[in-house]
Specification:
112 residues; mainly alpha; 4 helices; globular
Length: 112
């Protein structure tokens, strides 16, 4: 079996990355007590946040520094069903989850 960058193996790798990068948001949504803490909604909230962030960068100029985090907070609020304060806590918890993932990956890469 050869691992190629095209076809089904590439799709499986891409799907794994989507799930891995959505997991901290999903777990944080469960911790915060969101109304809809599912993995699919976590993926959708990240997609919606990315689209809104791209629009904010295209239209906002320097104001985009404030609009991009707001885009993700609004996506968390409306897609996952949290309050605005819950979206802030969710964002901070997801950020901590990403930091933990990077720390663990860094430890794995440096251990010989």
């Amino acid at each position: 079996m050869s691992l190629t960058a095209a076809g089904m193996p590439a799709f499986m790798i891409e799907a794994a990355f989507v799930v891995i990068f959505s997991a901290p948001v999903w777990l944080a949504a469960k911790v915060v007590g969101a109304d809809h803490p599912t993995l699919l909604r976590s993926i959708l909230s990240l997609v919606a946040g990315t689209v809104l962030a791209a629009v904010a960068v295209a239209l906002g100029g320097l104001l985009a520094l404030l609009l991009v985090p707001l885009a993700f907070l609004l996506a968390f609020k409306y897609v996952l069903g949290t309050s605005f304060l819950g979206a802030i806590v969710l964002g901070l918890a997801a950020l901590a989850g990403y930091a933990a993932m990077l720390h663990l990956v860094g430890k794995g890469l440096t251990s010989g």
